[in-house]
């Protein structure tokens, strides 16, 4: 006689004690290690998303299957999820030697479910801290592309979208849920936490939240005005306290100086130091400003240039060449000859005659 498989209603609604008996009876009657281990994974998903306690569920049954059942691909794929059921390191070593060829193969299977394990065994909200009854409402695509709805009661209202997506992704990898020979949970489409209000977590396979929450944390997208830190009131500080605060916040190499002295210096550039001292007032906390302190260095006056060197090139003339000197002498002789002939005197006599 063929053993009747467990339905999804039984796995996700029955109490812990009765469900443990049903699973043990199913394995005893059928010896179907693959299906039994997949049923146990479905209970892990329930434990992850609900506030009910299913920790160390069917621990003896898990050890019996992984230590003695015939190795299979299903056992190799799901065994890393049940490492916590083995308190003895020697027993777990026996499991890995039976199911896997070597350690590298085990690590490959373990890495495939490592992201799921991170959320699968995270803590949930204690029942006494819940403010009502919630449920997870999700839509899945089946093996032929049809959409169907699945819900889970007693849900943890603080579950993040990442946690729900990781748990339901593991659920979609199971092959034990069928209807009319068609596999049910193939692809997650949408998921919400539902009470009187619907809180969307997954839409079209995309997680709506990006926060990675491994523990129960109050999710509030924005702080209320009462929760936001109040602005500090500086008006209650005295002048001395303000000055001390400013000095403490100054960067290294900065000092305080009187802001009024800058303006005073512009007005009294031509005045004597004595006059400036009479106009300057003592520093106060309200009239200080920060300036960068320049390193002191000895001022060096440029060496004075002698007078004879300053003007050495002021009247510089290029010396005359021999050819130029001869030409000037020749010109002088020509001028003297012209004067000697009376050419210049005749012109003067003509002008006098005209005037007369």
Report on the structure:
The protein is an alpha+beta fold and 356 residues long. Among the domains are: 113 residues, no CATH class; 81 residues, no CATH class. It is 44% helix and 12% strand. The chain contains 15 helices and 9 strands. A 5-stranded antiparallel beta sheet has the order 2-1-5-6-7, with helices on one face. Helix 2 runs antiparallel to helix 3, helix 3 packs antiparallel against helix 9 and helix 8 crosses helix 9. About 17% of the residues have low confidence.
Report the strand count. 9
Shape: elongated
Strand percentage, roughly? 5-15%
Biggest sheet strand order reads 2-1-5-6-7
Backbone CA Rg: 50 Å
Query: How many strands, what sense, and barrel or not for the largest sheet?
Result: 5 strands, antiparallel
Mean pLDDT: 78
Bin the helical content: 40-55%
Give the SSE order as H and E letters: HHHHHHHHEEHEEEEEHEHHEHHH
Protein structure class: alpha+beta
Which key terms come to mind for this protein?
15 helices, 44% helix, 356 residues, elongated, 5-stranded antiparallel beta sheet, 12% strand, two-stranded antiparallel ribbon, alpha+beta, single chain
Topology:
Elements: H1 8-13, H2 16-30, H3 33-49, H4 59-68, H5 73-78, H6 89-99, H7 103-112, H8 114-120, E1 135-141, E2 147-153, H9 161-171, E3 178-179, E4 182-183, E5 187-194, E6 198-203, E7 206-207, H10 239-249, E8 254-258, H11 259-267, H12 273-279, E9 288-292, H13 307-310, H14 322-341, H15 343-355
Antiparallel strand pairs: 1-2, 1-5, 3-4, 5-6, 6-7, 8-9
């Amino acid at each position: 006689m063929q053993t009747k498989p467990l339905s999804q209603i039984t796995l996700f609604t029955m109490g812990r004690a009765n469900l443990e008996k049903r699973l043990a009876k199913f394995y005893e009657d059928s010896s179907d290690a693959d299906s039994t281990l997949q049923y146990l994974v479905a209970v892990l998903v329930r434990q992850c998303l609900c506030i009910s306690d299913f920790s160390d569920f069917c621990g003896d049954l898990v050890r019996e299957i992984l230590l003695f059942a015939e190795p299979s691909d299903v056992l190799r794929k799901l065994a890393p999820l049940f490492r916590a059921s083995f308190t003895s390191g020697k027993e777990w070593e026996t499991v890995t030697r039976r199911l896997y060829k070597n350690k590298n193969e085990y690590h490959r299977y373990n890495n495939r479910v490592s992201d799921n394990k991170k959320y699968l065994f995270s803590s949930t909200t204690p029942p006494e801290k819940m403010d009502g009854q919630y449920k997870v409402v999700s839509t899945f695509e089946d093996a032929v592309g049809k959409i169907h709805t699945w819900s889970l009661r007693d849900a943890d209202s603080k579950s993040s979208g990442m946690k729900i997506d990781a748990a339901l992704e593991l659920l979609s990898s199971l092959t034990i849920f069928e209807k009319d020979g068609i596999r049910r949970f193939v692809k997650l489409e949408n998921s919400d936490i539902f009470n009187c209000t619907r809180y969307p977590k997954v839409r079209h396979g995309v997680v709506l939240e990006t926060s990675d929450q491994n523990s129960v944390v109050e999710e509030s997208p924005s702080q209320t005005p009462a929760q936001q830190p109040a602005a500090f009131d500086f008006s209650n500080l005295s002048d001395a306290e303000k000055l001390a605060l400013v000095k403490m916040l100054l960067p290294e190499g900065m000092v305080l100086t009187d802001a009024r002295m800058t303006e005073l210096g512009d007005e009294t550039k031509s005045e004597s130091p004595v006059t400036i001292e009479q106009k300057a007032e003592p520093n106060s906390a309200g009239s200080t400003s920060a300036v960068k302190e320049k390193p002191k260095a000895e001022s060096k006056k440029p060496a004075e240039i002698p007078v004879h060197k300053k003007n050495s090139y002021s009247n510089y003339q290029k010396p005359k060449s021999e050819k130029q000197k001869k030409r000037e002498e020749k010109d002088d002789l020509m001028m003297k000859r012209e004067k000697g002939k009376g050419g210049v005197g005749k012109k003067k006599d003509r002008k006098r005659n005209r005037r007369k």
